[in-house]
TrEMBL record:
Keyword check for Metal-binding: yes
PANTHER family membership: EF-HAND CALCIUM-BINDING DOMAIN-CONTAINING PROTEIN 7
Protein name in the entry: EF hand associated type-2 domain-containing protein
Sample GO molecular function, one term: metal ion binding
Organism for this UniProt entry: Paramecium pentaurelia
Membrane topology: Single-pass type IV membrane protein
Amino acid sequence: MKKRDLKLVVIGDSGVGKSSFVSALINQISNKASVLDKHPPINLPSDILNHPECITTIIDTKCAPHQLPQEIQIADVILLMYAIDDDGSSERLKRFWLKELREQGYKQPVLIVGNKLDLLGLEEDRDYHRIFKVIKQLVKDFNSVEMGIECSSIKQQGIYDVINCAQRSYLYPLAPIYSIADKSLTEGFKKALTRIFRICDRDGDGVWSDIELEKFQKKVFKRQLDYSDIAGIKDMIEEELLDNSNKKVITLEGFIALQKRGIELMKIQICWTILRFFRYKDDLTLDESIFTNELIFDQDAGQTVELSDIALSKLKQMFEIRCNFNSQKTNTINQKQFDDIFYPVMCKTNFPHLNQYYPQEQDIITLNQWLAMWNAFSFFNYKEAYKLLCYIGIEIKLSDTFKEQNRKDSWSSVQKNIDRKVFHIAIVTRKKHGQLEKQFSNLPLIITTIQNKTYAISLYDELEAEQQIEKRRLSIIDFLLIDQNCQFETAQLIPISTYNDQEPFWAQINNINGTLHQIPFGYSDYQIQQLKKQNSLPIIEVAGVVTLLTLILTGGYFLSKKALLKNK
């Protein structure tokens, strides 16, 4: 694990022993007595603690009785201290401190530290005070409270345990993955486990075989499982689920149950080892560095990217897994199964809604619809599409996910675009009216499939067209339909036709499909001539390049020969 900076901020009422606690730490570290009203921040040596990967700084605080100290703003973990011998001090934990932390939006892990343990007498008094009178109810009422621990600053008893528990809470926080009050896994953790399960389901059958379980264990923990290990894991799942559904294979439900049992056995570190291996951060979102790679393509020259055959194949496989769960065994999924695919997603997305596809099916999604929506989504924003693919459990490199299409800034490039699968049609009108208003119904985009090609259809008014279509020398629009009542004109080399509100909308779209797949792809003679001019360098430029190359090559020969003669 990488080194991580941990700032521990000690808060609590005056007189509970905050400064005495810090003094006790200093005394144990340096063997020097230090008694101050408030200590400056202290860096703790990593070699005396259980988690040397934590570079730990402890910060003492002092504030007015009804005020949170400012240092909380930089805290990674909060040590909220009370005096075990003072009932008023423990009551203030709930009545002021934890209530105020919640109301002001602080979400750092909180450890309740009972100081002055030396002032209690009988052992049973200690247990009663900690478990029943203080900690149990606070854990139930406040999600940020992870645990309680007791110490004695005067006797220097248990102070290292407090720091080690705080380090553990920082490295392996409980709140993001488990609710102590509800005794259940958080929704975010279940989303993450669903993605991880899908990634490790190599054959895509929706369950883990023993071989897949072994590969998961070896991949994450670098440890081989034997037969008894696998049997033990399955027995643990059976105890948690109270059935034997995971005797032959491990289901997603079984995998989630296994993690819950692990947490309840205080094996939180195992859960975080799994999460961090699959690039999850403490808030259970994926590490953004996964998405930093960029494709190099020239969108200004009309070049686009499309999903590769590998990516489409993986999306098809994910769709077919859901089809297998369909009781009617049809090659469709329902809306619930569609939503289930996106369950692991922990980020906002603009993925198309089903009502953006034409023609719509009644409460079902076909494979064509599924792939077409992904094609259209990727066409406009491949980075967001890649992020979404990662979240739903498709493990693939960005460079393998997309393929670049040819530029459209010359006639030769245009002629090579016949293998494209996605096309963008833009309609320009003065305002939505007639069938356009009915067809789009405030949708940002309409998607359809014609002869295995995906068409994304968008609508612009004249002002939007000037702002969005004309902002580039060339754009990613493949065909312009301009309303016959519209004054919009463009100098860009885009195939253009007239939109007629009196003709059926989809008949016009079908006509464009025919035009785009025939030479000259809808371009006018003038546009073709302009594209051909960009096909090659002017004659003078070409001659200049040839002359320069000749001089370089022959110059190199003569210089070499001259040097040889000189050496002789």
